[in-house]
Each structure stands twice: as structure tokens, then as C-alpha cells.
Fold this protein.
Amino acid sequence: MTGETKRKEAARQEAAQRLAFALTDAGMQRMGARVLAAFLFTDLPSLTAGDLSKDLGASAGSVSGAIKMVMQMGLIERVPAQGSRREHYRMRDRAWTTLYGRQHAPIDDILTAVARGVEAVEPGPARERLEYMRDFYEFLLAEVPSLIERFEQRRTESRP
């Protein structure tokens, strides 16, 4: 490895670590953040749990749990790898819009609870706060599909 190649690899690793720290600070579990950063920064078509364990210097168990978490978020997927007995994973196409679009279930649960709250209280400050919250989340849910569509259109138009 040349000096320039080493410098570029060190910069890449530092950038991946910084992203993992930022994700952790935003509430993601530490190992999940490190695994996600590894997927984002790799040029390989797929990674195995063994690859991640080695690259991150982490136990197979912690990497396995992190892979499961990131898969449940919809950001990575299992892919076939001909001739390999190991499971291979890669970033999903359009992972971020998939993730954002999947956030509906928790919001739906919140809306159901808020609607019950609105019904349970008499008119007054509590009801106004609950109605405001309900209206905000209803608006947000209604806007998500068009927001994703606008993002995809903008991205397509800005690509050469």
C-alpha cells in the first residue's frame, strides 16, 4: 500500500467512525451504528458477519445482533452469494426512502392513542394540545409520499 493509499484509507475509516458517532448520538445503538457505517463506506458488493467482525474488531455475537437490527430498519438485506456458505448482506437500494416510508407504524400507533385522548378529555387546554399533536401527525403522514416522490424526482434530475 502506498503512502497516499494509506492516507486515503485512514481518512475513510475516520469518516466512517465519525458517522457512527453521529448515529449513536442521535440514538442508534453503538454497534448498529458501526455496522451501518461499514455498509455505507464499503465498495464491496456485500459483506458477511465475519467481514464486519474482523473489520470492526467486534465479537460475532454483537455484530450478529447489529446486523439483525439494521435489517429490521430496512437498510440492509441478505443477498445470495454463489459458492459461499456464509450469509452476505448489502445496503438496500433506496435505503433511506425505504426507512423513512416505514416510519408509519409507530406514528399510526401514536395517532390512535392521541385520538383516544381527544375523546377522553373535555374541551380545554389538554384537548387543544392533543388535537394539535393529532393534526401534526396526520399532516406529516399525508406529506410523506409526496416528499419521497419529490426527492426521487429531484435526485433523478440532478444526476448526469
